[in-house]
Write a structure and sequence with these properties.
CATH superfamily: RutC-like
CATH architecture: 2-Layer Sandwich
Number of domains: 1
Order of helices and strands: EEEHEEEEHEHEE
Structural class: alpha+beta
Distance between the termini: 29 Å
Radius of gyration: 16 Å
Number of strands: 10
CATH class: Alpha Beta
CATH topology: 60s Ribosomal Protein L30, Chain: A
Helix content: 10-25%
Strand content: 25-35%
Number of helices: 3
Shape: globular
Largest sheet: 5 strands, mixed
C-alpha cells in the first residue's frame, strides 16, 4: 500500500489506496464562494465534478495573435498561455500589489484557469480524457515588492484539483513579470496528459 501526501494551499491532502482523507470541508470556498476542493471522495469523473461544483465553463477564448490555443503531441496536450478574458474582453488589467489586490489576482487566475479548461474540453471533447495535469505555469504581473505569488497561483491549482482530483495534481512554476499581453495580470500555461 502506498500513501501520497499532497499539500494544497498549505493544507495537506492525504491519499491512501485510492481513498481520499483530509479533504477540505464543503464550507471552504474560493473568492467566488465556490468550494475549493470537491468533497466527493469517489472516483468521480472530471465532467461529473464540474457538475457537482456547479461550474459552467465559458466559451473558449479566441487567440489574441498568430497561434493556436491547444496542440496535442502524442498523449500530451499543450495549452497556450491562457488569459483572464471574459466574453472576449480582457479583464484584470494592472499589477498585483499595485492597482490590483491579492484577491483580484486570485480571481483573475481562476478566470484564466476556467478558460484553460474550456480550451481543453473543446479540443478533447471531454475533460474525462485527462489522466494527469502534468505542469501548471503561472506568470503574474506584480509590483517589485510583491511576495505572495504562491497564494495567487493557488487559485488555479485549487480549481484543477477540484476538477481532476488530488491524485492528478501537477508540478507548478510561478513567475513574476514586468508585463503580459494587453496589460492583463496573469497568464497560465498548462500541460495535460490524456488518453484516447
Amino acid at each position: 500500500m502506498t500513501a501520497v501526501r499532497i499539500s494544497v494551499g498549505g493544507e495537506v491532502i492525504a491519499k491512501e489506496a485510492g481513498i481520499s482523507v483530509g479533504l477540505r470541508k464543503a464550507s471552504s470556498s474560493d473568492v467566488h464562494g465556490e468550494p475549493l476542493m470537491s468533497t466527493n471522495t469517489t472516483a468521480a469523473s472530471a465532467e461529473q465534478r464540474l457538475k457537482d461544483l456547479g461550474i459552467n465553463l465559458p466559451h473558449p477564448p479566441t487567440p489574441l495573435g498568430a497561434y493556436v490555443e491547444a496542440v496535442q503531441a502524442g498523449n500530451l496536450l499543450f495549452l497556450s498561455g491562457t488569459l483572464p478574458v471574459e466574453g472576449g474582453v480582457p479583464k484584470f488589467l494592472g499589477r498585483i500589489g499595485g492597482e490590483l489586490s491579492v484577491e483580484d489576482g486570485r480571481r483573475a487566475t481562476h478566470v484564466a484557469a476556467l478558460n484553460a479548461l474550456a480550451i481543453a474540453k473543446e479540443h478533447l471533447g471531454s475533460l474525462d480524457r485527462v489522466t494527469r495535469v502534468v505542469r501548471l505555469g503561472v506568470s503574474l504581473v506584480t509590483t517589485s515588492e510583491f511576495r505572495e505569488h504562491p497564494k495567487v497561483a493557488d487559485a488555479a491549482s485549487e480549481l484543477l484539483v477540484s476538477v481532476f482530483g488530488a491524485d492528478k495534481m501537477s508540478t507548478r512554476l510561478v513567475f513574476g513579470m514586468a508585463s503580459l499581453p494587453v496589460g492583463m495580470c496573469v497568464l497560465l500555461e498548462i500541460i495535460l496528459e490524456i488518453r484516447d
